[in-house]
Each structure stands twice: as C-alpha cells, then as structure tokens.
Design a protein that fits this description.
Blueprint lengths: L21 E4 L2 E9 L4 E8 L8 E3 L3 E7 L1 E4 L5 E3 L3 E4 L4 E2 L1 E3 L4 E8 L2 E4 L5 E5 L1 H14 L8 E3 L1
Parallel strand pairs: 2-14
Antiparallel strand pairs: 1-2, 2-3, 3-11, 4-9, 4-12, 5-8, 5-11, 6-7, 6-10, 12-13
Length: 154
C-alpha cells in the first residue's frame, strides 16, 4: 500500500507570536491554542504571577500539563511543578492550583470540562473549550489584540 501526500491530512502550524496573550488580570495571561469541541479537547497556555489561584475544580476528562518556566502547585499536594515538569491528571481529579513564582508559564491539554467548586464542594460554574474560546476571543478583541487565530477543529 502506498500513501501519497495528497491523501494525507496536513499538519497545522501556529507560530509562537501568532496567538496573542490575553490579560486576565493581575499580570496573569491566557492564550487558547486549540479547541476541538466535538472531542471535548481544549489546549490552553497560561502565564501566572505568584499568588494567583485557580478555583478548586474537578476534571471530567484527563488533563496533561507541562511547565515551561516558574513554579506552581496544587494546594492539596506537596509536590511542586517547576520548569520541565510534566503532569498527568486522571478524569475525576479535584484540586486547587496555586502559583508560587512570578511569570510561571504552563500549558494544559484537557478533555471534558472543569467543574468549578464552591467551598462546600458544590458546582459553582463550568469551564469548557467553547466557553474558553468565547471568553478568549472577547478579551483579545476588547484589549485591541484582534481576533485570535485559534486552531479550531470539529
């Protein structure tokens, strides 16, 4: 069997400077790299400042994370994610992200949704790829960054 280039799907490349960083407050930033809504896939990259916390949340699907620089941890665990750290979170995991160094850069490859929990463990809100795309696009446009060229699939 011969596989020829015209029948193979093409790779998609987005350069480092092609997607803007949206300011989410306090010097913290977000960019959405890819979303495949039907698959439940969303890939984000963040820059967090020391003291930034993400609300306690439960993942309905698996998550992979890679720390590019800085350091962060989950309040529920002792380990620290530093530059070069890789993290796998199984579906159903619950935790509270806490940034412990300025300019911490990390990306997350997620499936499913984040169920954001209140102090009693009740679902307070839901975050997913489609909602993140809408919020990221709105922030970019409001901040004069234009409409981002997020990789969007089926």
């Amino acid at each position: 069997m011969t596989i020829t280039a015209p029948t193979a799907p093409e790779a998609v490349h987005v350069g480092a400077d092609e997607l803007p960083w949206a300011d989410i407050g306090g010097g913290n930033k977000l960019r959405l790299l890819q979303i495949r809504e039907k698959e439940g896939l969303w890939i984000v990259e963040n820059i967090f400042q020391k003291g930034f916390d993400v609300q306690t949340h439960k993942h309905t699907g698996p998550v992979w994370g890679y720390t590019v620089s800085g350091a962060w941890k989950y309040k529920e665990y002792d380990y620290v994610n530093r530059a070069g750290s890789f993290l796998y979170e199984p579906a159903g995991s619950v935790h509270t992200l806490e940034c412990i160094e300025d300019d911490t850069q990390v990306w997350f490859h997620m499936y499913g949704v984040n169920l954001n929990l209140d102090e009693e463990g009740n679902v307070a809100s839901v975050s997913d790829g489609a909602g993140t795309l809408a919020a990221y696009t709105a922030m970019c446009e409001a901040q004069g960054l234009g409409t981002p060229n997020v990789v969007i699939g089926d």
